[in-house]
Amino acid sequence: MVADYIREKLKDGPEQELVVGPLVERLVSNGWKIEQIVYGKNEWKVPKTPSEASKREKGTSFDYFPVDIAVFESPETCGDYRHLLFLIECKQPNIDVGLQQLETYLSLEPHVKLGIWANNPDISSDTLFVYKDAKGLSFPKKKTVKDIPLIGAPISPTSVNLTFNDLVIPTKDTLYKTFSKLLDKVVAQDGNVTRREEQLDQLCNIILLKLDSDKQGKIDPKNEVYFRVFATESGTGDYIKEKFSTFTDIYPDIFITQSDQEIRFDNATIHDIVEKISKFNFIDIGADTVSIAFQVLRSAALKQEEGQYFTPKQVIQAAMKLMDLNLNDIIIDPACGTGGFLIQALIELKELYPNQEREISRWAQLHLHGIDKDAIGIKLTKAIMQILGDGSAHCVRGDSVLTHTWESKYPHLLTNSFKNGRFTKVFTNPPFGAPLKIKYKDAKKSGLSITEYVDTGKDIELGLAMFNRCYDLLKDKGRLCIVLPETYFFSPSYKFVRDWVKDRLKPICVANVPMDAFQGFCRAKTNLYIFEKIDKKKTNVNLESDLVTFLNPQTCGIYKNGSDRFIVNSAGERTKIIDNELLRLAIKYQNGQNDEMFTVPLADTYKADVLVPQYYDYSLQRPFDELKLTHKFEQISIEELINKGIITVSGGHGSPSNDMRNGNIPYVKVSDIRNMRINVNPTNLVSIELAKRFWKTDNGKSNLCAWDLISPSRASSNIGEFAILLPGEEQIVLTKEVFVIRVHENDLGYSPFYLLWALSLTETRKQWQRVTLMQTNREDVGQRYKEILIPQPISKEWAETVSAPFRNYFTSIATAKKEFVLSTGNDKFTYIASVSAFEE
User: Fold this and answer.
1) Which ranges carry the DNA methylase adenine-specific domain (predicted)?
2) Of 778, 816, 813, nearest to 675 (Cα)?
């Protein structure tokens, strides 16, 4: 034992035993080797005078002052006064005597840089530090024993030994920038590691070492953390490599191969990385640290093409609340990435049982499971879980979807640990996106039942294949929490998904995931879907009494760049309270409070064939209902207006390619429909011959009429905002993604101006928010626009009165345009066909 060896070399006396010995032990714990320290019986001798120093240089005997502890640059230079770094004096009876002695010693030793007086080995006890440079002695600085230099640290008045209490929790924005800069440096300067995958792996190794250092520091927050820089690049590099070697020995099942067990960056790179991140507290942001690092370091070229978007902690926390974990749960994430869901599950259980950490760690070893194809992701998952309290035993590399490959590629997955029907809870955010597919024959070989719902031979989207696997892994009445694009649950092109789901999974709860959560990486609109597996006899399904709960939060605590989002008060001031509606509503759901959410009978969701929170957010309908009560009118839907023959609805013409836009007929896109008008973009004009091909009419003219109402129907946030077509504006080509509503002659009070008034009401516009959903990453209203309600005219006269401002405004514009064209002959401010239209 080092302590025994140290005590053997001490001189007799209480000062040696109670102060000198413990201080030498502290130096060793700070990284200094016992072979570079002189103390005790073999005490260091400081010449009493310059002439005595000359004798020392000649190797003859000399008069001296004995020093309690002397520390040298290295074991090889120990005993050479030219390499003496600092002295520690433990003199009694008081600090003044100690200071005088130190000043004497420092004046007589030409190379020493620091003298320390310490008379108590406790880390928080007061000490005096006297530094020496070319200008002489500095004023004594009052410090503590914990500030005694670490090995390799610069010896200067400004140097500070970091403790855990000194570490700061970085913002997400800071982490993104830090990791991005580090990656740039690695790419630019490190010649040892040049492949991107290896660079990522090596950076992650250092981050894991930093997490371990933080973990140890948190246990003893007043002591130094071991993750730190040295005065030189070589010192830092050698030290970190040595520490990492010890770290890999502690976790042999994580660092399996020889390449896993080495830091291969050059010393300059290691020094830069450690210098940049040593000041941060990583352990208290846990999985977020690694997921952010992974997002940045993976880079778009490597992972975003694979549809792998790491789940923000805010979404994961909400998922845990919605699923209500307990000790009986057996949990798996079959696309675990860097382990966000599994790590949070462990944290949740520790919070539920705060005084049972050891038991929860043992529980995690048996109850938490993860699979991922990415070797680095699995390594990070296992490492973080072990650092935070374990649960890593069943986190393995493999392809969780293509089970027919397990025997040849992943035999370790063939154990009962990963068998179908075993798990009570499944959490996952699978890779998704139309380009990511598995071949039909592979899906069939792996027994995916969703193949029965698609055309034979048609490839299966990876997200849907993973959805299928989650179902297979669940036991009857087990629950699945999955992040999926909402387009799967309303789009006609994905009706087969809903058909597959109906006989297998019962929706329990659906929570809107605000776009900010993933927008930094993709624009696909997603939701958190909670399903319960239907048992074979369907005893857990009742279409009328079973309810589906929908949560429609608008914030999740972060902006699209990952930075924290704070609540802004009524005075327009940003508070310090995180604006996370998603988590707040999830907690309310967990507590059985449903006052801010919407419950819908299961039968109604099947009838509507929609499983999207926004669609069931009836708060968007309430303003119209209140308006109806206040003004005592009846309502009528667009669908009823169509069925009664009062209106017809058609679409636009099409979209000419950019190189065809070189004529004089306006081509109108959805962005040109604003402020109730069609706004012509002079850079978007097509030839008359091309326009005729889009119009497809016998007379070679547009099929549009004056006073038609036009609104975007897709790919616009302005869906439901209508423009009116004036006389003379008919000869245009409309993009296909619009509605064209034409009002037919009737005696009920419906006119184009009344309809425009009714559709422009704030209370009517609010309804469009409910029925406009995100088809992958584009707004889409489908046939749901027919559900929009407007006031039914109380009488024809009433309708004419309320819409009179609209009629007067737009007819006056039409008249002014006609007079302008006829009086000046200048049609540049109107459409090319304006004059002929009025003459007709």
Assistant:
1) 302-552
2) 813
Residues 379 and 252 in one domain: no
Q: What gap in Å lies between CA 563 and CA 175, rounded to an integer?
A: 10
Consecutive H or E run containing 532: strand 526-533
For 100, residues 6+ apart whose C-beta sits below 8 A from its C-beta are: none
Place of tokens 């975007």: 712
Q: Provide the 10 A C-beta neighbour count for residue 760.
A: 15
| CA atoms of 337 and 387, how far apart (whole Å) | 17
Residue 259 near residue 265, CB atoms below 8 Å? no
Per-residue pLDDT tens digits for 760-802: 999 999 999 999 998 878 899 999 999 999 999 999 999 999 9
State how far the Cα of 75 lies from the Cα of 80, in Å rounded to an integer.
10
Is 0.85 surpassed by the pTM of this model? no
Please give the structure tokens belonging to residue 83. Answer: 């390499």
Which residues constitute the domain of residue 135? 2-158
Residue 344's nearest CA partner among 315, 365, 373, 372 is 315
Instruction: Please state, for a pLDDT cut of 70, what percent of the chain lies above it.
Output: 93
Look-up of token digits 């296909």: 736
- Determine the Cα–Cα distance for residues 396 and 717; give it in Å rounded to an integer: 43
Query: Are residues 359 and 496 both part of a single domain?
Result: yes
Q: Report yes or no on 618 lying in a domain.
A: no
Q: Is the pLDDT of residue 537 over 50?
A: yes
- Give the span between the Cα atoms of 156 and 373, in whole angstroms: 49
DSSP reduced 3-state for 445 = helix
CA distance 453 to 829: 55
Helix axes 267-277, 233-250, angle to 10 degrees: 80
Highest mean pLDDT among 231-245, 469-483, 772-786: 469-483
- pLDDT band at residue 704, thresholds of 50, 70 and 90? very high
- Residue 790's alpha-carbon distances to 211, 524, 616, 617, 624, in angstroms, are 59, 31, 19, 18, 8
What pLDDT does 286 receive?
A: 58
Q: How far, in Å, are 92, 633, 634, 641, 801 from residue 625 at the CA level?
A: 87, 10, 10, 19, 22
239 and 323 share one domain:
no
Q: Residue type for 78, please?
A: C
Whether residue 134 is found in the same domain as residue 186? no
The mean pLDDT value for 658-677 works out to 89
Beta strands at 368-372 and 331-333: parallel, antiparallel or unpaired: parallel
Q: Quick check: is 811 in a domain?
A: yes
d(Cα 399, Cα 390) in Å, to the nearest integer? 23
